[in-house]
Amino acid sequence: MKKDIWTTNQIGDLTGKVFIVTGANSGIGFEATKVFAGKGAQVIMACRNQSKAQDAKQQILREFPDAKLVLMQLDLTDFSSIESFSNEVKLQYQRIDVLLNNAGIMTVPYGSTKDNLELQIGVNHFGHFYLTMKLLPLIDKTPNSRIVSIASIAHKFGKLNPTTFVYDENRKYHTARAYAQSKLANLLFTYGLQTRLEELGSKVKVLAAHPGISRTNLGEHIKTLSYKPIRGLINLFNQSQQEGSLPGIRACTDSSAKSGQYYGPSGFYEMKGHPVVTKSTKRSHSKELQNILWEESHKITKQDILL
Ligand SMILES: NC(=O)c1ccc[n+]([C@@H]2O[C@H](COP(=O)([O-])OP(=O)(O)OC[C@H]3O[C@@H](n4cnc5c(N)ncnc54)[C@H](OP(=O)(O)O)[C@@H]3O)[C@@H](O)[C@H]2O)c1
User: In the predicted model, what is the mean pLDDT of residues 216-245?
Assistant: First the structure.
């Protein structure tokens, strides 16, 4: 049987399409932005640091001088920043073909978002939940649009514990557990949103992907002794950020992709390899957990689906 080896050569012309990539200046988001822009899409680079974003834009322009790249400030730790970003997008654009919820942080020290949420769940889930709800009316109006979230192998170890969502300086914090929870949340959100949109008759496709283990800036906080074994493993079984970006890029562009699919690398334990449809855990498909997360997200962000 012929192997399913997908490459970016299979992506058609994206001229006229508008893509939004969160965290577009680094790692997976940077590589995805380069590919989308190289295929003609206008890409809104949603970044928290404008000087890093400007550098990334210049780097892409050196390779693709005609790339249509727009820098817009977005800080996912701050609902008011997400609000301003979304309002600006809705003012300036008549369509959003793809929203790639990619930005993320991993195993950072305990800290709080501007809205008093624990940082990892705050950035990785609640910020993207808020952003998606704000942009959904425009995404829904755009034919063949999709929303893709970047999850992780770490979701397999994730457990949902709503008591940890709000920052509390007296709470015991486990960095890796908090990251795993936030990545499980990416999948619970994807499947929960897919169900809700289908019930409402929306044609928006909702998908997720993960990059295996890829050499990006994400691991900058894995420096403590307790993470040494993980670092060793990472160095043995990782892939480039370019290879790691392919599952997300495929989820965003493959015309045969279906709502609810999850893409990841094909190799051993999905750490590296070419991008294929894969499976997430039973827990990530739990309707009960999807509903709990949705209710908490609604309570915390005051946002919900408004088509
Ligand atoms: N690399 C891997 O092996 C791996 C494995 C599994 C999943 N992932 C997922 O892949 C996604 C991308 O990560 P990466 O590996 O490409 O890491 P990265 O190189 O560190 O990129 C992360 C991006 O997110 C941005 N970001 C962080 N906090 C933000 C905030 N508050 N507001 C807006 N943007 C923010 C960063 O901006 P700055 O540059 O300003 O910090 C950066 O652009 C993440 O969701 C991560 O969980 C990665």
Answer: 74
